[in-house]
Specification:
Bound molecules: iron/sulfur cluster
CATH topology of the largest domain: Endonuclease III, domain 1
Structural class: mainly alpha
Number of helices: 12
Number of domains: 2
CATH superfamily of the largest domain: Hypothetical protein, domain 2
Radius of gyration: 18 Å
Length: 229
């Protein structure tokens, strides 16, 4: 899809920045800080971002715990682990053979580009680092943005099916908007602030689970009810 066609998936709003910041404030007032991502290290976040693909967080926690209990949650240690052993340990997260391969791809990339050091990539711009991450087989846009935002602390807005559902129900975007266009919907107007992006994504996920579920929208009690047309 062309960039122009993509933008047509976004409703023309006079002051989108104000609207989004007002929505954020309403969510933040109701939900408070989410303090994502729950992890002891940036590397744990990186691993969790792969494990959480197509599964719920409780399953990810079990897989992470398996690695932690064996003192394996370090880049070089995991790289030295045979892939089938890694797959067995992350089995609770589901799709464990695929995820073991993806994790290994990510670890090889991290070792190759930065000797597994987060600070070694400080010199790269957000766009450069994102482009690099997206070269890793198995790392898609949402996973890359999660790693950038929560592990690298870069201002990369994470969007997902929850974001699409809520903002479509508010008639602000089309349901079939492409990932990059939906990300631009936020990043084109909001201040590029890691804390804001961290909390905003967390609030969207929590809102979608609590009030704006796939089967029904509990608008009467939702903090975003005043933003409905
Ligand atoms: S539940 Fe209603 S008010 Fe809340 S986000 Fe969904 S559509 Fe908006």
């Amino acid at each position: 899809m062309s960039a122009a066609a993509g933008k047509r998936k976004v409703k023309n709003i006079m002051n989108r920045e104000k609207l989004l910041l007002d929505m954020f404030s309403a969510l933040h007032g109701e939900l408070g800080s989410s303090n994502w991502w729950p992890a002891d290290s940036a590397f744990e976040i990186m691993v969790g971002a792969v494990l959480t693909q197509n599964t719920n967080w409780k399953n990810v926690e079990k897989a992470i715990q398996n690695l932690k209990q064996r003192n394996l949650l370090a880049p070089q240690t995991l790289l030295d682990l045979p892939q089938d052993e890694l797959a067995a340990l992350i089995r609770p997260a589901g799709y464990y053979n695929v995820k073991a391969k993806r994790l290994r791809n990510l670890l090889l990339w991290f070792d190759d580009i930065a000797s597994c050091s987060f600070s070694a990539l400080d010199h790269m711009s957000l766009d450069e680092l994102r482009a690099q991450l997206l070269t890793v087989n198995g790392i898609g846009q949402e996973t890359a943005d999660s790693i950038l935002l929560y592990a690298f602390k870069r201002p990369s807005f994470v969007v997902d099916a929850y974001t699409r559902r809520i903002f479509n129900r508010h008639s602000l975007i089309e349901e079939d908007i492409m990932y990059e266009d939906l990300r631009d919907f936020f990043m084109d107007v909001l201040p590029h602030d890691v804390h804001l992006f961290n909390e905003f994504h967390a609030h969207i996920v929590r809102t979608a689970k609590k009030w704006c579920t796939k089967s029904k929208a509990l608008c009467e009690t939702c903090p975003l009810r005043s933003f409905l047309e």
